[in-house]
# Entry
Amino acid sequence: MSSELLIKVERLSKCYQIYGRPQDRLLQMLMRGRRQYFREFWALRDISFEIRRGETVGIIGRNGSGKSTLLQLLCGTLNPTTGTVETKGRIAALLELGAGFNPEFTGRENVYLAANLYGLSNEEIDERFESIRDFADIGDFIEQPVKTYSSGMFVRLAFAVVAHVDADILVIDEALSVGDAYFVQKCMRFLRQFMEKGTLFFCSHDIGAVINLCEKAIWLDHGKMVMMDSPKKVSERYLAALCNVPDIQPAAVETVPDMATDRAAESLEDDEYHDARAPLINASNLRNEMEILQFDPYRPGFGAGGAEIVSVRLLGKNGKPLAWMVGGEDVVLEIRAKASQELSRPIIGFVFRDRLGQAVFTDNTYLSYRFNEPTAQAGEILIASFEFRLPVMPSGKYSVAVSIGEGTQEQNIQHHWVHDALMIDVHASVVCMGLIGVPMKKIYLGKE
# Structure
């Protein structure tokens, strides 16, 4: 990564004047500051940070926290009330939907208009127009006024332009949320190439996308920067804040009797389905071996405190706790929680994450007991077991977050969420691409 400083923000603030009545604007002008007819709204207050070439920064926060205002200040479309923004190089941005487009112009005309604003000459645009049109992939609509476009077509054309202006800094504000899946994948491929040499500012409510794309994250709340750190650390704190509960460090827990091991083991039955390559793979250095670091009751988490996770284990087919496992095997994830109060509709679940914090797979008990809602009294131990065939995982470090809540999947109280309840280190794998590998029952290559 280059040490070249591209963005320097010092004590940046933005204040808006809010008028209660339209005539108050005229009165304020006539009074020449002798009396105030407006109230102040500080969208941003005292923000400072530095970003270097090649860094990728995610911005997260609730609606109204100042994310879009910060991005507009970086792009120069807003002037700060106090503080300074210094940028170096060309900035390209996808902010408000269709911003910079004239709705009466055709797509072709808007390509030239927008690219001219980014500093490209008509000759340079001529050379790149076919590539821009292919990237947008909107067909004959390129010759139609953009006021006839759908929101997805707006994004396609706007992104196609910013992808071809040789920007040093790229700013994206939730723009990809309206794109279809195929176009989003095309954009993600471009972004990953851009991140190798350029600086990306990415604003999104999708925490997984921020963790996946970014090296740093900024959390804004009510116009103030709460923290700037790695996306994993910022997202964990932000998630706790969204649930409106404090961070907690679980106290030491008592030993819980082993009540579910036999039951979990009995429910696992041999299955004829197996990976046809398993004998070859398991005899090689590509055997998908996974080392399991056992549950630490002192792991940080958050929750309202109505229940507490007391044990998390991975069990083998014989019901015994595993220290090692191999991709493609049948396993049981067992989670135990102790109720501190009466629970009417408890839900226990887990999220299996990769090293970037992406959710590889996840599940909970809600749907299985939707029509037979469980309950728990204070002091009772709840046991959840998830029986599944382990995917084949790429090499790397993984974590399992677990939680117990109360309510439904849409509306619930998080009583205890434990980050990194289990850590899994995958030492070898046949998977060279993708998030997981699927055991193949049969693979055939032949000729007609």
